[in-house]
Design a protein that fits this description.
mainly beta; 5-stranded antiparallel β-sheet; Jacalin-like_lectin_dom; Jacalin-like_lectin_dom_sf; Jacalin-type lectin domain-containing protein
Length: 128
């Protein structure tokens, strides 16, 4: 498997948010796989996001919630061997749409006006 290449654009979101990097904050999860993405939405914006990582012995590490909770909770679970290959989103003053696509063709979308999404993060990886 090739090493993923991350191409972030400028920082997105509302005032008061802070940049985060779970892998830098929790170096013990470097060899863990991304197992689940939890996120919270209300009416038209993404309020918070959290990642769950699975270790080599099946142990689960749940990262911090980035942002806040809201009315609607959603989660996107990845199967063993499944990887996120594209993340797109739309943002003005706040992130209001996200779409995740995996190497197995599975996708999950949330937010408003999904047809008008612009890429805010793209993960480039060998899809074989």
């Amino acid at each position: 498997m090739s090493t993923p290449v991350f191409l972030p654009t400028s920082q997105k979101g509302g005032n008061g948010g802070t940049k985060y990097d779970d892998l830098a904050t929790y170096p013990q999860i470097t060899n863990y796989r991304l197992a689940k993405i939890n996120y919270w939405t209300n009416s038209s914006i993404i309020r918070g996001i959290q990642f769950e990582w699975e270790g080599p012995r099946g142990e689960i590490f749940t990262g911090d919630v980035h942002g806040g909770s809201a009315d609607t909770f959603r989660s996107f679970t990845l199967n063993p061997g499944e990887r996120i290959v594209v993340i797109t989103g739309r943002a003005g003053s706040r992130v209001d749409a996200l779409t995740f696509i995996t190497n197995q063709g599975k996708h999950d979308s949330s937010g408003s006006d999904l047809d008008a999404c612009e890429a805010i993060f793209v993960v480039l990886e060998n899809l074989e």
